[in-house]
Protein 1
Amino acid sequence: MKKSICIIGSGTAGLQLAYALKENFDVTVIERRSPDQIRQGRIMSTQVHFGPTRNREKRFGMPEWKEQKLIESIHVTIGDKKLFTGMLKEPALSIDQRLSYSHYIEDLTSKGVSFRFEKVIKENIEALIDNFDLVIDCTGKTGPLLPFPIEEDLSPFKTPLRKCIVGYFLGIKPNTPLGVNVTVLPELGEMFEIPAITERGPVTILFITAVPNNKLDVFKGIKKQEEFTLKMKSTVQKFFPEIYKRIKEDEFTLCDENSFLQIAFIPVIRRPYLFIKNKLVVGCGDSIFLNDPITGQGSNLASYCAEKLYETLIEYKDSEWDAQTGESYWNRTKQYVKEVTGWTNAMAMPLPEHVIHFLLQGAQDQVKADAVAEWFSNPAKAYQVFFPSKVKQ
Ligand SMILES: Cc1cc2nc3c(=O)[nH]c(=O)nc-3n(C[C@H](O)[C@H](O)[C@H](O)COP(=O)(O)OP(=O)(O)OC[C@H]3O[C@@H](n4cnc5c(N)ncnc54)[C@H](O)[C@@H]3O)c2cc1C
């Protein structure tokens, strides 16, 4: 008989795990929102999936998004100076999570994975632990449901690093080559302009990461669609003139009434396993590895860890899932988590001189520019540049 696995939460982590595990195990997913509620709900992220994540999605047979314009590059501007356009080795793609999550849930259901649409509360979790061979907590940043121990070295913050302000817009002429457009305004925050796909077609995401209580942090209290659009337009005009030039005044609007978001949270990294009633429980994705979105790594990290958890569970498929299994999963993910988190936390601080020097070289040297673009696909490369003394030769 196949071992039974309960995945709580069907976001990036839970869904990739469901695809990966469904052949070898008896998988049940519990998700608090139905596909329709997700589809009709608020946007949740900006979700750029870089090459390695897209390759993992292929590896696990996740449906592909054909005929979409792919993200080929990263444009970098500091202050009002455009430095360079770095080309990605493999293209990236951003699909509105409302579209991808609802589609994957329906596809998995059609392939025999069992879904239950209900909210798991802490009081019910012990019953799940009793009833399944393994429970995986994939509840995202509202989680975890269980007290996975905090890794203090990787969790130095007591307040959010940025206010995240996101809108999915129509009426912006895309940049060329099509890419993520990063503008760093020292001390104030950043703007990420991201081409994305929604159920209604292509959009441009404007994603401001504002240093709290500084000049970019100007969306406080805005709850209405029209007010959000007007504030975004005036903010772009004032701080991001190159993007403003590409806005078509009469077409500039949010793509739907739920396509804007304001959120701030404290990054925290936890050890991804623990024992409840002597039984192993694991976590995957934001519920255990929660970083600030400033480097766009959350979904990519969730996908990486889902693959490592899959590989661990396959290796230990025929033995008891115990401390060795949990430790093996943590050992497979630790280094990558450290690199993503170290780079992400450093990006939210004033950039060190040697990093600014590296970025400036990108303006003269296309090889360096392409190397910066590669940071987003392969965070170990970014970590090497930010922390040369910590990297073993
Ligand atoms: C503004 C913003 C921009 C971002 N941009 C990027 C980016 O460009 N690139 C990138 O890689 N990452 C980005 N991220 C991060 C990325 O969205 C997350 O890291 C990723 O979605 C994490 O996936 P997950 O499966 O862990 O959690 P989620 O996607 O949050 O999924 C968790 C799921 O669990 C369900 N759930 C929660 N609690 C319960 C419960 N008690 N019972 C049942 N179900 C439950 C939820 O309904 C949800 O469906 C961004 C995040 C934000 C906030």
Note: The radius of gyration is 21 Å.
Protein 2
Amino acid sequence: MEKKELQACKIHSAKVRLDVLKMLKWRRYGHLGGAMSIIELLSVLYNRHLRHDAKNPNWEDRDYLVLSKGHAGPALYATLAEQGYFDKDMLFTLNEGGTKLPSHPDKTKTPGVDATTGSLGQGTSLAAGLGYTLRLEHSGQKVYLIAGDGELNEGQCWEAFQFIASHKLNEVIVFIDENKRQLDGWTENIIRQFDIAEKMRAFGFYTVRCDGSDEEAIDKAIEEVKGVKDQAVCVVMNTIKGQGSPYWEALVDNHAPKFNAEADAATDEDIARIEAWLKENGGL
Ligand SMILES: Cc1ncc(C[n+]2csc(CCOP(=O)(O)OP(=O)(O)O)c2C)c(N)n1
């Protein structure tokens, strides 16, 4: 990717991170940790790979994003707002009664959301079915599926992965956000994952690993798997839950924290730091 494009992706990530922090601080609680770890991926997808049109969210030839770890909705909403699907003011209705931005994505409510998710595991089957339909239609469209590492505790994921691998369904690009934590702690203390990339390979996927905080590395990984013919593909991203905030990264219990005075102060520091970076880099 050219320098200019990389910088645009980094600015996009910074703006989205800023909005996620602001909206959750304003809301006083929310799914922070797992939202922060997919911000760079969403930036690379929406700026470089996903075929989409914010002016025409139901464009028939679009690619699909399935956020199977649906609780990371705030990252998707901030991304969609940054892309122009709706006004940024709407971000500050998150989780309110009657909002178009419920805590988990609902395709009947939000422009740009194609998959209703939140019950972990289900998005993987949805993506498999969607990908199979696109295959039958020879449409050339793609499905970008984002699953969490804790989510892999759901047997349904592995049923869907068997289907995707068996049909060499590379219409679906599987991303696993390996942030090593889940709702109630470290994944290895709950159900040990062993080596996720090796597991995906054993299931039949062409699998690459990348640093999920590095837009360039993510883009490279996607380019690599897009070049694979005749095999299912997967990108395992090494990330940190709470990525991009020293305070939230260090707090192990950052899944859906409530804000208090300490969190407010730390988040204000994050906001100031990100705004300063954006100003320096022409993003504000
Ligand atoms: C079927 C189901 N069981 C339990 C939950 C509650 N839950 C929400 S998020 C979560 C942890 C998910 O961990 P992971 O996929 O690693 O997400 P991340 O750490 O990236 O936020 C759980 C258990 C759920 N949403 N769906």
Note: The longest strand covers residues 172-178.
Protein 3
Amino acid sequence: MKPAIIKIGGSTISQLPSTFYRDIGELYETRQVVVVHGGGPAINESLAKQQIKPDFHQGLRVTSSAVMKVVEEVLAGSLNKALVRHFSDQNVKAAGISGQDGQLLKARILNEKLGLVGDVKEVNPSVIHALLNAGFIPVIAPVGLGEHGEALNINADHAAVHIAKSLGGDLIFATDVPGVMKHNHVLTHLSHDEAKDLIKDGTISGGMIPKVEAALHAVQSGIEQTFILNGFETGVITAYQHNRSTGTTFSKKVVQS
Ligand SMILES: Nc1ncnc2c1ncn2[C@@H]1O[C@H](COP(=O)(O)OP(=O)(O)OP(=O)(O)O)[C@@H](O)[C@H]1O
Ligand SMILES: [Mg+2]
């Protein structure tokens, strides 16, 4: 069975129900599972303590070297380990790494204006396979390795799609909203053209922009199924496991129509 790559939004981590982690453990009994996580709110909280104001451009964090230090401490440090503990509490074996381990995510500066934001250029999934073969769910913090050996901040949605591409699995974005919304309704399916229009007219904004772009990229790269769904919804992972996914679905058929 195809692996499932589950991106857990930083927006959800502190409030996800324990069943979410338990259900991922159950999913892992039937297929390989890889977790990628974000860390937006926790990073903002740490930045606030240092009187650094968060700055975003099209949903991507402008990352100076001072910001990068905080991103790495929080994302690859406290938050990554907190997630591993959540799995551990449910007796699910998980091991936390960053995109620097085993040169998993090699990246280049995306745009000088954004500072130390990385664009993934190469994925070396051997560290993922090593963990999976040893029975651990890899829990990946999206800090990449730059061309000069520097740490780069990679948007977690972008990192997840690159990892899903390299493993050939389904991609699930678990976030803090029930899917892509328009006028307070969830769009159950989203085509490429519609998504672009909704970004243009501002219906899709902030952190939903890189997520939808990552989903479109996933479909264009041949990933069969991509979902944006609500991590807070009870049973959402089990529903996916039984082909009853909720939220917004992106699939080749719809995107090409
Ligand atoms: N059309 C839209 N439908 C749904 N959410 C939207 C839309 N436009 C903007 N958003 C915002 O996008 C947010 C989700 O993206 P966000 O980046 O904040 O979360 P995340 O990716 O799950 O977390 P993190 O970036 O920390 O990993 C929602 O909470 C919502 O405020
Ligand atoms: Mg986000």
Note: Residues 4-256 form a domain with the Carbamate kinase fold (CATH 3.40.1160.10).
Protein 4
Amino acid sequence: MLALGLLKSAPAHAFNLEGKGKGKKIIILGAGLAGMASAYELTKLGYDCTILEARERTGGRCWSIKNGSRHNEVNKQTVTANFDEGLYFNAGPSRIPHNHELTLHYCKELGVPIQVYNNVNESTYYFAEGKGSLSNKKIRAREIHNDVRGYMTEMLAKTMDNGELDSPLTKEDSQKIVEYLMAEGGLDADKLYKASARRGYIEAPGAGDKPGKLSDPLKLAEIIQSGLLDPDFYNVAEYTYELQMTMFQAVGGMDKIAQAFEKKLTPMLKLNAEVSNIQNTADGVKITYKDKVGTHELSGDFCICTIPLPVLSNIKNNFSSNVSRAVDYINYNETGKIGLQFNRRFWEEDEHIYGGITHTNNELTQIFYPSYDYLSKKGILIGYYNFNEKAKQVGELSYAEREQLALYKGKLIHPQYDKTFEKSLSVSWHKTKYSMGGWAVYTSETRKNAYPALLKPDGNIYFAGEHLTYLNAWMAGAFESARSVVADLHSRNTESRQTYPTQTTKG
Ligand SMILES: Cc1cc2nc3c(=O)[nH]c(=O)nc-3n(C[C@H](O)[C@H](O)[C@H](O)COP(=O)(O)OP(=O)(O)OC[C@H]3O[C@@H](n4cnc5c(N)ncnc54)[C@H](O)[C@@H]3O)c2cc1C
């Protein structure tokens, strides 16, 4: 009936499970969003949950760095942020897509205020290091976007006009397409791309005799030769399903979502409790953990393990061999961010940039401008947000070297850095204790041969987390996975057939 469109699929928030947990003991490993959402839902059903969390805080990767936040990377000293009160940056999640129903559902249910996150801003820059005539210059996104769109549509319109396009279109259809191309690219009556207000002004329009002065388009060949059409600069934000506006963020930092769960779960939460052994037993599970007092053993009926796989792969266990193999095989990426505090919001005051992202082809990859406290005095920029090889290289540096790099490269775009920078803190997630990676990255091979092993319980142990979904790198993945496992476990415990409608959409 679903396939025929006769039945509407259940929305993600339809989660009315029947039956009671009758006090069965569930031990949940990890107080990230997956662990806490599992505990929250299971508690509603009458289960007796205990959450073991290795860190001194909840939230896992859902973490906003503010004054006093402490950060731990392997082979490095613990660092403490000393940003000004009220300032923060999201070291992990910073954006909630409007189509992530479950993330928004929990914000609503738990009373977490949200605000619009400005992910797309035509005033930000493209900056290509290189040897082209447009290299090493900052160019507004609107200039590149409109010029490239204009030239491409001009070429297509000419091709259509000349009848060079091998397509079965009628003359009228072809005419419609040409009209569309002219509108899309802002072409003139001769179907040529020329300067227009779309790409901005060199002198803004004003009162009286000030009509404004349009800026001239860049040359297509120069754009290409300067690397500005390379993959580093693909205009992904508006096209990618999850990154399309409207996007949201939690007011005051994304970890307000984690803190809202924590408030509901305090009595069952053990912080600073590092799990060191996970064992299936004949009638349940036995978990060993260490805290400040010593080593403890905890027995339960079931366990839900949300520990990220690169960490789990080094924890003692008696998993079955296909589960162990999956834990070892599935890869996570390298990724890092640095928060840079400035004593003046020069990007707003001097450059009219309010939120959004500048793109580079150097180690920085991206600079994120804050989507909160507009027009206030100070602010924190995310000075880089990089991935894979670039994140790996930057992750090898000391904290001071990372700061130097962010400032040195950032100054090429914003010379104001020199006079306004105050302090920083950087996070390399693949070096961060208890995470050891940004998020799970599947190949078709690991998706086919490793992923399925973790979707089923191994004896009395269930697995949940961002990594067990097709929503990798999203909080929604943690929530969807938690609900899926809660439904499975509850179904087994109540011997009823209750399945969770899994979300299958992915852009
Ligand atoms: C840089 C970055 C950017 C992101 N951007 C976005 C975004 O914009 N929007 C979005 O929706 N999502 C984003 N995400 C993804 C989102 O943060 C994750 O999908 C989600 O937070 C994962 O939750 P989880 O519960 O599955 O895992 P985690 O948050 O990793 O939770 C696992 C928990 O297990 C604990 N643990 C580990 N080892 C042990 C142990 N031995 N004993 C006990 N506990 C242990 C950890 O401390 C942690 O608390 C981003 C992630 C990163 C890293």
Note: The chain has three domains: 25-60+256-332+439-494, 64-123+244-253+334-431, 140-229.
